[in-house]
Design a protein that fits this description.
With 172 residues, this protein is α/β, with parallel strands linked by helices. The chain has a single domain, classed as 3-Layer(aba) Sandwich (Glutaredoxin). The chain is 38% helix and 20% strand. It contains five helices and seven strands. β3, α2 and β4 form a beta-alpha-beta unit. It is globular, with a radius of gyration of 17 Å. The termini are far apart. The N terminus is likely disordered.
Length: 172
């Protein structure tokens, strides 16, 4: 009995690692979102140039997202890679996408509103193995073909920023 509990615990602990291993080098899933400017955007727009995708699965993850946006804009050559933020939110039944965009526009500077997308579906979260309502931001580096080549989560630190920078360099 003790062995089976230990084995079950070990498998449970390895599951997220295996899920990420299966995701690595897979294409970004197809999705449609709305930029804060009102423009409809899709996963197809992530093809053609390396992209850093910051996924914000909850309001609790917003602080991590702000820290990542600042760190990436300071440390990554944006002529070589584009940076996009996806607010992956589950809107309550009484809130429209327009209301969500209005609230987001109040907090995000106008110069970044075309780079910030609202996604009101869980396709991206499911495909990228992002826990719904996670309090941590998730950062993905995509190559020019839209393949996921790196993933980090939480607030940026020296190690995670270095991992993202190395992944971006590998696309050059």
């Amino acid at each position: 009995m003790r062995t089976s509990i230990t084995l079950a615990l070990a498998l449970a602990l390895l599951s997220p690692v295996n899920a990420w291993a299966q995701l690595s080098n897979s294409p970004i899933p197809d999705f449609t979102a709305t930029a804060l400017t009102g423009e409809k955007v899709s996963a197809a727009q992530l093809i053609g140039q390396p992209t850093i995708l910051i996924v914000t699965p909850s309001t609790d993850a917003a602080k991590d997202t702000r820290l990542w946006a600042a760190a990436l804009r300071k440390n990554v050559d944006q002529s070589a890679v584009r940076i996009r933020d996806v607010l992956a939110i589950d809107l309550p039944f009484f809130m429209s996408e327009e209301d969500a965009i209005g609230r987001a526009k109040e907090k995000i500077p106008a110069r970044y509103q075309d780079q910030t997308w609202i996604l009101n579906e869980s396709i991206l979260e499911s495909a990228l193995n992002i826990p719904r309502d996670s309090a941590r931001a998730f950062v993905f580096v995509l190559d020019a073909q839209g393949q996921v080549i790196a993933r980090v989560e939480g607030a940026p630190n020296e190690a995670t920023l270095s991992e993202v920078e190395m992944a971006v360099r590998s696309t050059q």
